[in-house]
Amino acid sequence: MARRSFSFLLARRYLNPRRSMLSSFSIISLVGVLLGVLVLVVVMAVYAGLERDVKSRLLGFTPHILLTHHPLDPASPNTVNDWRKDSGPAKMVTGVDAVAPFVSDNVILDVDSTQKPVMFQAIDTEDPSQVERITRMLDRDHYPDSSADMGLDDRVVISSTLAEQFGIGVGQTVRLYSTRNFEQVMAAYKITEKPPVRDAFAEKWKKANDLLSQGWKKRGEADVIPTATLQQSYDLFHEIWSERIREPERQLLQDVLDTMGEAERDEANGTHVFNKEQREQLDQSLAELGKTDPDKMDGETLKSLKEVVLPKEALVVGVYQASQMTLTPEVFMPLTLAQTLSGLGDSVQGISIRLSDPYKAGEVAKELSARMGPEWRTLTWMQQYSAFFSLINQQRMMMYFALSFIVLVSAFSMMAVMFTVTIQKRREIGVMKALGATSGQIVRVFVYQGMILGFFGAVLGVGLGRVVIHYRGVLQDCLRQLGFDPFTSSFTGFTILPAYNNPKEQVAFAFLAFLLCSFAALVPAFFAARSDAAKSLRNL
């Protein structure tokens, strides 16, 4: 115990040779460690705060689990017709907090003849919790009149990025063009380039009509035709009906097929019997198909598109604070408006599942898959943003790696200082060895110095780092008054940088600094202990 006390007391004496203040060497080493730990604590706390707020923002509008319908029949639509009924089994799963309809698509936003494609997401305005989540995102600092009260009308909440780009404010009106409509327009224009069915499918058209005209026979007041002949003609007309043709011609062909299907079948004679009205209806439909006017049909087709491509005018009732760090929908709108713009009618694209604990989404998704059946698929928020979160994790590791070098540089600086101290104390080291001090005692003298400086530097670094984090808003305001703002709200989405103090992480930073400083002092102490006492006394 006495030997240890001797080394520790001498280490303290070397740190404070005048007993009034620390030596310059000690101050330089202490400040180096302090600054290294402070930077590591502040940067990683801000980074953790940004990550947590980004996740919170994403979870504010993103489904924790998205249920989508994929029928076993490929011809059936993937939409959900009655989401309230279909979501019944999902509500029974443990951990499910709420269910809601999901619609997300893109539209063309038009403001004063300036257009831009934007993503939108539907909000069930009858669900107060969904409205509340959008309310918490509103940018009331720059747009004090912002509201998330969209009701069932054509009202929308847009991102601050969109508002700044187009100069839109609360109370202004925007036009929304559905991209689904443009698909219909393009399809209609392509159809107008085709000739009528009698010319476009001349061979099938002639063969089907010839089969009918040659197969008819009179039986009293009725007309009969062999079933095989009728079937051949029906198949040819159906092949034409299945092609991309003008809607008026499709309707006439449908009338032809319906009339053929209504005929009475005579199993005994292998024929189909048409009464007088059926035969007249069939001849009339075929006659109209044979003399259709392409120009007239095209005019009616394009005229009917006026209702399809007319934009929806929506009132901007709120602006939410967007962030370049998070991919968010640029427009939030009521469910009814979203269904109209997506061409879904009363259907939705999927069912949004919200959980009491979003981080258990994987476990709940497995149970949902088993309960909902093979026609339903699940997509968790972790899967949806896996690439994004993988990038965040990689960035965090790079930050740890890069910032740890600051502490490492501080340790190397301490090593250089300790080498200088050992050189200055060579004569004293020689005296101690001549008086019987062991090499271990000499080593501990300088190691204790490194440990003391490392301990207090790490503790002060963590403490000052937490102070800087606490007053980060004040520091940001000072920087802004000087005309320098490295963390603009338009980029981060936050007026004050978010931060999160992780005590375990900060203790780990302090312990790392302490170990590095102790090791940095060990190297020069080892060389000092190996010096020859006689040479040291001669100051060689």
Q: How would you describe this structure to a colleague?
A:
Belongs to the ABC-4 integral membrane protein family. LolC/E subfamily. This is ABC transporter permease. By secondary structure, the protein is an alpha+beta fold. It folds into 4 domains: 2-56 and 388-537, no CATH class; 63-102 and 344-384, Alpha-Beta Plaits, CATH 3.30.70; 104-176 and 311-343, no CATH class; 197-291. The protein has helices at residues 2-15, 24-61, 83-86, 88-91, 128-137, 160-166, 179-192, 197-200, 202-215, 227-242, 247-262, 276-290, 294-304, 306-309, 335-342, 361-372, 381-384, 386-424, 426-434, 439-470, 472-481, 489-492, 503-529, 533-537, and strands at residues 65-69, 96-102, 104-111, 114-123, 155-159, 173-178, 217-219, 222-226, 264-266, 271-274, 312-320, 331-334, 350-355, 376-380. Strands 3-4-12-5-11-6 form a 6-stranded mixed beta barrel, surrounded by 4 helices. Helix 2 (24-61) crosses helix 20 and helix 7 packs antiparallel against helix 13 (294-304).
Features:
4-stranded antiparallel sheet; cell membrane; 4 domains; Lipoprotein-release_system; 24 helices; 6-stranded mixed β-barrel; transmembrane
